[in-house]
Amino acid sequence: MTLEKIILEILESRDTTNPTEVRQYCLDGYGLRVERVMDISEDDALKEGCVGTPCNHGSEWACTDCMNTGYIEPPSLDFMGMWDQINKKRGYSWYDNPYAWVIDYKILETGGNK
Q: Are 94 and 38 in contact (CB under 8 A)?
């Protein structure tokens, strides 16, 4: 089974949680893996739409507010809250650290929706 078919099966099986418009995007899938929810990177949390609380330290010296990470609260903390809001009631709490599919893709074009 190709990656494209796997992605389409996942998107089509989630009709109750994904709006119809999602299926009208042309996707270029280039990665599929399984990882524990707590293993999400800050970059992946940003891609999920979680922004965290940026630190506005204005100097080149060590910042004790963010420990030079750039965030007072990292995007992964926002992702944790979003995950529990969506999945905890279904029995997949953040603290249970379930496995999750990670699909890397690019949106090539939309089917009339912008």
A: yes
Residue of 22, 26, 2, 27 whose CA lies nearest to 12: 22
> DSSP secondary structure string, 43-68?
HHHHHTT---EE----SSSPPTTTTT
**pLDDT digits 0-9 by tens, 51-81:** 888 887 766 676 777 777 777 888 999 999 9
In this prediction the pTM is: 0.65
CB distance 27 to 2 below 8 Å: no
The residues, any chain, with a CB within 8 Å of residue 42's CB and separated by 6 or more, are 52, 71, 74, 75, 76
For the chain, which ranges sit under pLDDT 50?
A: 18, 21, 113-114
Burial class of residue 17, CB neighbours in 10 A (0-12, 13-18, 19+): exposed
Q: Distance of CA 46 to CAs 35, 36, 78, 84, 111, Å?
A: 17, 17, 9, 17, 25
- Closest of 110, 94, 95 to residue 21, by C-alpha: 110
